[in-house]
Amino acid sequence: MLYQAFFNRCIVDLRRIVFLSTLVLLNGCLEVRSQGQSRISSQPCSHDHKGSCHVIEMLNYSKGFTHVFSPGFLKIKPGDKIIFQSLNHGHNVMSVSIPEGAKRWESNLSHSFSLVLKIPGVYFYKCEPHDSAGMIGVIQVGDSLNNYSHAVKEAESMNILENRFRIHEYFSQLGER
């Protein structure tokens, strides 16, 4: 059993290394931290994209909690690129509440997904298979909170059975309303 857990962890680490190596080649904006964690830095993504890159990992387990987006809250500038990195099978990401004029999104199951967010406001998203487990996240683009009330209402109306504290934790990080 112990060997199986070790083997599974090695496979996850290998997938992470392959994915991040690909990002280095494609985007040229990887920052490797001394703790062994990898994140996209605030440097330009590539020659054809002028904004910054940010990675949100889709995970089965992190920091003692199950079914998480890491980070669960992120504040970015309009035009920045978000990469939802699929590190574990069975996750996707889909928009729940977005600013007026923004386009809804939904990724394929167990696949990484990227998009550029240009319209300021609050973007509330979830993992569809694990929304009842509280696998949710919030992105604030710019300083506008014009759709804050709608996003909170959508979050509070969800049938979240586990990790419900994330609603308050993530929305409380938004800038002044």
Question: What keyword list fits this structure?
Answer:
alpha+beta; 3 helices; 4-stranded mixed sheet
Question: What would you say this structure looks like, in words?
Answer:
The chain is of the alpha+beta class and 177 residues long. It has a single domain (2-171), classed as Sandwich (Immunoglobulin-like), CATH 2.60.40.420. 24% of the residues lie in helices and 34% in strands. The chain has three helices and eleven strands. The strands form three sheets. Strands 3, 4, 5, 7 and 9 form a five-stranded mixed β-sheet that branches. The longest helix is centred in the N-terminal third of the chain and has 26 residues, at 2-27. It starts with a helix and ends in a 6-residue tail after the last helix. Residues 20-43 have low confidence and may be disordered.
Concise description?
By secondary structure, this protein is an alpha+beta fold.
What is the CATH C-level name? Mainly Beta
Radius of gyration (CA) equals: 16 Å
| Average pLDDT for all residues | 82
Query: What is the correct CATH architecture?
Result: Sandwich
The portion of residues assigned to helices is 10-25%
Shape: globular
| Termini Cα gap | 50 Å
Number of helices: 3
Proportion of β residues?
Answer: 25-35%
Low-confidence blocks of residues: 20-43
Number of strands: 11
